[in-house]
Amino acid sequence: MWRRRVGALLRSPRTSSSASSACQSRRHHLLPSEEPLALNRLARLFTSQAGSDGGDTQKPFIAFVLGGPGSGKGTQCTKIASDFGFAHLSAGDILRHEIASGSEKGELILEIIKEGRIVPSEITVELIRKAMEMNNAKRVLIDGFPRCEENRIAFERIVGTEPDIVIFFDCPEDEMVKRLLGRNQGRVDDNIETIKKRLKVFESLNIPVVDYYSSRGKVHKINATGTADEIFEAVRRLFSSLRL
Ligand SMILES: Nc1ncnc2c1ncn2[C@@H]1O[C@H](COP(=O)(O)OP(=O)(O)OP(=O)(O)O)[C@@H](O)[C@H]1O
Ligand SMILES: O=c1ccn([C@@H]2O[C@H](COP(=O)(O)O)[C@@H](O)[C@H]2O)c(=O)[nH]1
Ligand SMILES: [Mg+2]
């Protein structure tokens, strides 16, 4: 079984000491009173999952897709999904969907996104895990996650696997800012104040994740300047070379 069993989940420390300071102040993590509830809920989900498939589920091929805000992750993922048969799970879209649901969790997420900060790992990983379970795809793109080392560690612990590859879209800041200001999709974070914060968070917290996976030989860096079609040519070459 590729997913880690719930026993391991409950035995593991919530975060390593390096992870606890990695994302940001603990102030915005789950309130202490909410944590046992979150773990219990996860425990139930894992138990029922193990029962439903006899524990033989094949591990999907997972690609994390990283890059700065506006580097073109979503644009390229749409093309990869259509040409290479991947499910496209955008962490940002999943969080925005939770906001749209009107849940209490959604209110917290909205405040964090407006400030360009990172949503607590417990929330994001659980939403991604559920989306993966519902999708049950053999090839999955996880777009815009993990955002920080704590996210990465939480994913590997809770979902129980590492990505097979990590795609990193490398784009200059001025180009990213220009694209975001021109996106025009009504996103609450597409304004210059929040964009500046997102760029800082990207440099300080997301780049270390890229560095970590580089040290494990998993990162494929793509030059994200040029037209979307030009960039996709490099992406196509990469995906065509993979043993999927
Ligand atoms: N190569 C490109 N050249 C010019 N504009 C682009 C290019 N790729 C994407 N765009 C446009 O730039 C904007 C941002 O692209 P996209 O949403 O794909 O980025 P992203 O990395 O997913 O951003 P975010 O992290 O904010 O979700 C969109 O309006 C998109 O149409
Ligand atoms: O794993 C994640 C992904 C996203 N966020 C928050 O959402 C916004 C927007 O994300 P996009 O990927 O750019 O759509 C991001 O700035 C974060 O505030 C997150 O916390 N964790
Ligand atoms: Mg996006």
Describe this structure in words.
This is UMP-CMP kinase. ATP binds at residues 70-75, 183, 226. GO terms for molecular function: ATP binding; UMP kinase activity. InterPro entries: Adenylat/UMP-CMP_kin, Adenylat_kinase_CS, P-loop_NTPase, UMP_CMP_kinase. It catalyses: CMP + ATP = CDP + ADP; dCMP + ATP = dCDP + ADP; UMP + ATP = UDP + ADP. This protein has a five-stranded parallel β-sheet, sandwiched between helices. With 244 residues, it is of the alpha/beta class. The chain is globular, with a radius of gyration of 18 Å. The chain contains eleven helices and five strands; from the N terminus they run H-H-H-E-H-E-H-H-H-E-H-E-H-H-E-H. The longest helix has 24 residues, at 192-215. It has helices at 6-11, 17-20, 35-53, 73-84, 91-100, 104-114, 121-135, 149-158, 173-181, 192-215, 228-241; strands at residues 61-67, 87-90, 139-143, 165-170, 219-223. It folds into two domains: 1-10 and 33-58; 60-241, P-loop containing nucleotide triphosphate hydrolases (Rossmann fold, 3-Layer(aba) Sandwich). Mean pLDDT is 84; it is low at 4-22 and 25-56. Helix 4 crosses helix 11 (228-241), helix 5 crosses helix 6 and helix 7 crosses helix 8 (149-158). The chain binds adenosine-5'-triphosphate, ligand LLZGTKA7 and magnesium ion. Adenosine-5'-triphosphate is lined by residues 67, 69-75, 92, 144, 179, 183, 227-228, 231. Adenosine-5'-triphosphate (ATP) binds next to helix 4 and helix 11.
